[in-house]
Amino acid sequence: MNFDTKRAARLALIGLAAASLAACASRPKPAGPAPVAPSEPSSPSAPYTPPPSPVAQGAIPGSVQDFVINIGERIYFDTDEYVVRSDAQPVLAAQAQWLNRYPAVRVRIEGNADERGTREYNLALGARRANAVRDFLVSQGVSGARIETLSYGKERPIDGGSSEDAWAKNRNARTAITDGAR
Amino acid sequence: MMSNKENPMRLKALLLMVAALIGGAMVSPAAAQIEVDINAGAVKPLPIAVPAFSGTPRGAEIAQVITGNLERSGLFQPLNVSAVADKLPDVNVQPRFPDWQATGAQALINGQVTVGADGGLRVDFRLWDVFSQQQLLGLQFSSTPDNWRRVAHKISDAVYERLTGEKGYFDTRVAFVAESGPKMARVKRLAIMDQDGANPQFLTDGSYIVMTPRFSATSQELTYMALRPTGSSIYLLNLETSRQETVGKFPGMVFAPRFSPDGAKVAFSVEKGGNSDVYVLDLRSRQSTRITTDPSIDTSPSFSPDGSKIVFNSDRGGQAQLYVMNADGSGVRRISYGGGRYTTPVWSPRGDFIAFTKQAGGQFHIGVMRTDGSDERLLTTSYLDEGPTWAPNGRVLMYFRETQAGTPRLWTVDVTGRILRPAAYQGQASDPAWSPLLD
Fold first, then answer.
1. Residues in A touching B271 (Cβ below 8 Å)
2. Are B299 and A156 an interchain contact pair (Cβ–Cβ within 8 Å)?
3. Chain-chain contact of B300 with A118 (C-beta, under 8 angstroms)
4. Average pLDDT of B142-159?
């Protein structure tokens, strides 16, 4: 680690104060039960635009793609556990290093659980997992003010199967970049 | 299939039902020859004849709704009596009992629909013991014509109560989460329907996740949780006015709301820094009080019917078990000791049982236990059974069962565990919440 983490963290705090003010101001009010609008029909007369040809190129450093591909956004947990496993620690250390390098980036840690638990319990379990990741990143020098946490419980599986394998994938915490990436 | 264009509650404006005892001199509980032992479950359902009511409109449909209710309860076996010669044209004329005895029916419901000068619907019915030829019940209901299904539910409740000695649960509604879409991107919409699956309506548009609706025991009010990328909210929704408010802002997640029996408080979980505790919000003073402080998962609170106690689940002992405490958080004691994980405890409105979800040996169960944890009985078993809710009479539970393919549907089971069946609503649904009896 050759870059100055302290300086990065300081910069991050400044960037963050501004960002969080903006976030407060624009936080949407919770909407009430709303009538269901039919989906908009697509315009039949829209001119056809061919999609751009694929271009081989690496992810731009500091981009969401860079983070997802080169660092990894998820770590995985054991059943009914929220301790960061040893195989997950290098991933989180790399996430922390990356976040320290790009101090304008803000993240939301999303805790997830497999379907082998009840909804409410799994919301609580997902929250524990999200906070375990948050605590790890903070211990590696990432300012806690850049991190928010959320639990999806068992509502957002990434594997729709019902095997041990699928459940293992669905017990995870995802570090989702919400702002500040290139 | 569903519509939400109108106010979900049409009760106050449209409902004017007058029930009057008819032929009271003939009705005497001591004279009853037949009764249904509710504790015997489905061992021997009572054969009953529910021929089409005479008169129009809706005579046949009312009988069909009653038939469906009684059949689904598992305590009655409605017979096909369309071939019986006695067509019962006048509710004031005694049935020709030999005709009905020949069907094997022990009880007979006959009724008559008339339209008053004001256009209102009048429905008279009689309940007969076919063999003793005694009238067990006679009632008359008046209503607006579009409310005929509720008349049928009220008749069902009256018959159920007369024959079982227990209050009925048919004139009720069920709030639930209507589900659609693939397992990895489910669309979840708050919905409500009659308990027999009729009149389903969406209350939210599916643009955010909703979970765990619960009725107030005293009013047509729901509390439920909404989950968006920006965080979670607990709403209080008045179904008559469609007004809703939140329980307020908290630093972390809020979830698992449930009303107190008097409707004056809501218990729920607040998560902070990964630790979930039970809070109680007083809806008048808007003051919330944290009532558990353990660094474990404390969630799924449910009040006892007298409001003095709360049952909840906690993993403070290593894995999720059920605990009971006083409503102020004092006197916590564990009540479940079986192997496996116990979650979603719900206190019966009668106060005699606590229903729960149990996970053991790779299976999920809905079960009941006494409020001190004794007499545990598992009523169901499947890949995923979750989230029991009590019918207002405390004799029947609704819950959801999800297959490995990820298809959730509503099921019912009685407290004996013998009467287990899919609920009438056949759409994909989870998190059912049974309303109290309507007014």
1. 123-124, 127, 151
2. no
3. yes
4. 96
pLDDT digits (tens, 9 = 90+) for A64-123: 999 999 999 999 999 999 999 999 999 999 999 999 999 999 999 999 999 999 999 999
Q: Which residue of A has its CA nearest to B431?
A: A119
Interface residue of A107, A110, A121 to substitute, partner B, most B CBs within 10 Å: A121
Q: Which CATH superfamily is domain A5-13+60-179 in?
A: OmpA-like domain (3.30.1330.60)
User: Which chain A residues have a beta carbon less than 8 Å from that of B319?
Assistant: 80
Distances (CA, A) of B23 to B20, B26, B28, B86, B91: 10, 6, 11, 22, 12
Same domain, B365 and B386: yes
Looking at the DSSP bridge assignments, the partners of residue B138 are: B126
pLDDT band at B41 (very low <50, low <70, confident <90, very high): low
Same domain, B271 and B154: no
Chain segment B25-40, per-residue pLDDT in tens: 344 444 446 777 766 6
Write down the pLDDT at residue A32. 43
Q: Find the CB nearest A150 among B184, B229, B383.
A: B229
Contacts of B104 (CB under 8 A, 6+ apart): B47, B79
User: Domain range holding B23?
Assistant: 11-164
Q: Which residue of B has its CA nearest to A122?
A: B297
Q: Give, in order, the Cα–Cα distances in Å from B286 to each of A102, B118, B225, B429.
A: 42, 46, 18, 33
pLDDT by residue (tens digit) across A157-180? 999 999 999 999 999 999 999 999
Name the domain count of chain B. 2
Are A127 and B204 within 8 A, CB to CB? no
Domain residues of chain A, as ranges? 5-13+60-179
Could you tell me the two tokens for B351? 């106060």
CB B168 within 8 A of CB B152: no
